[in-house]
Structure formats: structure tokens, C-alpha cells
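Fold this sequence, please.
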Amino acid sequence: MGRMTRAEKAERIVEVLEALYPAPPIPLDHTDPYTLLVAVLLSAQCTDVRVNQVTPALFARARDPFAMARVPVADVQAIVRPCGLAPQKAKAIVELSRLLVERHGGQVPADFAALEALPGVGHKTASVVMAQSFGVPAFPVDTHIHRLAERWGLSDGSSVVRTERDLKRTFAQERWNWLHLAIIYFGREHCPARGHDPAVCPICSFAAPAKLAKLAKRAKLKKPARP
């Protein structure tokens, strides 16, 4: 079979992911845009599992911006310490809650610029909230998506900005929000960063020729010479 075009590769990737993850759940536990916003902020350099262990206690203390804005930063910091970067995250949570009350009537704005103007909220966090809370097409790029886009030859791995741009160019806009979640689950369950055999991977087996060629070359070098 000849070399696949980008469009053909994208179509096959979608087929595999649709079969595996037709309706992937949002991995961060939340009940509304505000609790999702806080959970995504906490997930920076932290696993979703750990965030889900921490947020029940945090939201039991304050589950809306009005209440959270009145919680001492030290108290928030004590609760979120297991997530890492606790001083910065606690300060950002309390301050963004205050600004949501002051600027937006206590509501999370469905607007990229307004979200990214909040403390601790970068483009990826804003993209997750816009996509998963408001249904606005976005393609948040986390570490799984960034490495798989490079592994599958869909981007060059130079930056998350480049990866987001390339993925948006490759896939239909109406699939972005679903693909964001499906690729994350695939990366965790089928395509890990280490100890991965692309030859048997449901996607790498056709989408990662560079990885396959490297493996074949390595196997050839290791093959013992004939006597």
C-alpha cells in the first residue's frame, strides 16, 4: 500500500477512535462550568485521578465563586496541596473567584479572552472549559495529545501551539471536542510514552511509519550474524 495522505490517515484515526471511544466522559469530576474550571486549573502537572481525590473536599468548603472568594488562600492551599504547586494554584483559585464575582456576576464567561484574563487560566484551560462546558469547538492540547500528534506524523512536536494549529487543520471542526477526549483516553490506555510497540498499536501500526522503521532498523542491528 502506498503512503497515506494526511486526510486518509485522519479518517482512519477517527474510525479507530470512534470504535473505542464513541462517547468519552470528561475525566475531571465536576458539576458545572465553575467546578470544571477549578478542576482543570488544579490538573496542571497533576493527574486527573489526584485532582478528583482533592476536589470533593475543596467544593465541600466552597462550590461557587461567591463562597470561594471568601475562603482564605491558606485554607485552599492546605486542601489542594496534594495536587502540587499549591501556593500558586490556591492563590489563583481564590483570585479568579473574586474576579468572576466582580466582572461576570459569579458566572464563568463563555469567552476565550475573558477566561484567559483570569489568574491561572491559560489557553489550554480556557479551551477545555469552552469545549466541554459550552460546546464551543476547541482543541485543548495536553501532553498525551502533543506526543501522539508527533508520533502519528500530524505535527512536528515543536510546540503545543503548532500542534493545536495542525490538528485543527487536519480534523473537521465538529469533531474537535470529541477528539480531544478520545485521543487522551487512547494515549493512556493504548499508546503510552514508554514501553510501546507501534507495530501492534491500533493507530501507530498505520500512522507512525517513522517509529516502525526505527524499530525494524533496531531489530536488524540486533539480529545475530549467520555462522
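The first helix runs from residue 6 to 20. Residues 6-23+140-216 form a domain with the Endonuclease Iii, domain 2 fold (CATH 1.10.1670.10).
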